[in-house]
């Protein structure tokens, strides 16, 4: 039996039907407070643009708010889509966060735009560039965050000397290999792209080269969780994400739907079959069922950390799910700041 590992949370400041951006921001703050009380290791927010179901586009701004309502839990990006930005600007933003919340800030980086192509063009970054610039952009960002010897031009102020720890995120083998070669921690997006999970972990560990930041491989994997007091309620709540994933595949840009009593009434059998494959690692059930499935995932992957998303429409039920998972001492290693 494997030892408990740290659990963390990935949040998108979800926008549900009949919810405002202000609601989503307040809900994310409540989520972070609950996560800290229940011993989670970190709360990350992800950059997405132009999505009616996501309010975390201005990721660093959101993180400033999350840091203000918490005391000890780590906060960070999971991730910033670096091709959308100048590395210098990201160094300044996260250097500012590191000055506000010392020793609490992580910077996870992704290589996809996190949006559709029209919105990517509107972001006005990399219009004539190439995604192959990504490794050099990561290295440049790392340099901006390193110690300032007085000779660098330009210099990131804030940012220089902050040494904000970088992570690479990915849903394919590319970032796994790059993270290994750069000696950075790696997080795989198995919550929506499960097919290459085991190959990505293997390639990351095989290519790992120690760095100033990290002496040995460190890998996390994503899991969606819909956990409730009973199995039926958990399955009911999970119909929101089932509908949302189908909306994305139908190119329907909508807020997160309310759960439905019968998912077969709104999705076809073909759609459900595809979803069951994509969401194969989703944890849906009561606490006992959740612990059993989480244990199997942890033992099979031998990951160092698990990062969960809770795609539940109602905030009170979302917070309750976080609390229920936080009580799974058999698989979750609680942090010292837990109050329960």
TrEMBL record:
Residues 11-295 form the Luciferase-like domain. It holds the Pfam family Bac_luciferase. One of its GO terms (molecular function) is oxidoreductase activity, acting on paired donors, with incorporation or reduction of molecular oxygen. It comes from the Bacteria. One of its GO terms (cellular component) is cytosol. To bacterial alkanal monooxygenase alpha and beta chains. This is Luciferase-like monooxygenase. The lineage of its organism: Bacteria, Pseudomonadati, Pseudomonadota, Gammaproteobacteria, Alteromonadales.
């Amino acid at each position: 039996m494997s030892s408990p590992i740290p659990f963390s949370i990935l949040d998108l400041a979800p926008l549900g039907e009949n919810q405002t951006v202000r609601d989503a921001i307040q809900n994310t703050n409540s989520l972070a407070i609950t996560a800290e009380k229940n011993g989670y290791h970190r709360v990350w927010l992800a950059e997405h643009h132009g999505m009616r179901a996501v309010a975390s586009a201005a990721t660093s701004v959101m993180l400033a708010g999350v840091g203000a309502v918490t005391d000890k839990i780590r906060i960070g990006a999971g991730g910033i889509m670096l091709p959308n930005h100048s590395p210098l600007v990201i160094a300044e933003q996260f250097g500012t966060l590191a000055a506000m919340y010392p020793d609490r800030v992580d910077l996870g980086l992704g290589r996809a735009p996190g949006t559709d192509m029209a919105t990517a063009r509107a972001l006005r970054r990399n219009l004539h560039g190439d995604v192959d610039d990504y490794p050099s952009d990561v290295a440049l960002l790392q340099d901006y965050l390193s110690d300032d010897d007085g000779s660098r031009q330009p210099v990131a102020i804030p940012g220089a000397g902050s040494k904000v720890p970088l992570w690479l995120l990915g849903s394919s083998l590319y970032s796994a290999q790059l993270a290994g070669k750069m000696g950075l921690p790696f997080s795989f997006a198995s919550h929506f792209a499960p097919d290459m999970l085991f190959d990505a972990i293997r390639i990351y560990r095989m290519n790992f080269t120690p760095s100033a930041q990290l002496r040995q491989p460190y890998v996390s994997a994503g899991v969606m969780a819909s956990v409730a007091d009973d199995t039926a309620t958990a399955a009911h709540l999970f119909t929101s994400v089932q509908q949302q994933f189908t909306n994305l595949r139908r190119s329907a840009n909508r807020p997160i739907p309310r759960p439905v009593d019968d998912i077969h009434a709104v999705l076809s059998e073909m759609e459900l079959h595809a979803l069951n494959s994509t969401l194969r690692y989703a944890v849906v059930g009561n606490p006992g069922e959740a612990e059993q499935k989480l244990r199997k995932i942890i033992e099979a992957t031998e990951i160092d950390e698990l990062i969960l998303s809770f795609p539940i429409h109602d905030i009170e039920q979302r917070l309750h799910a976080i609390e229920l998972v936080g009580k799974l001492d058999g698989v979750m290693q609680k942090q010292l700041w837990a109050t329960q």
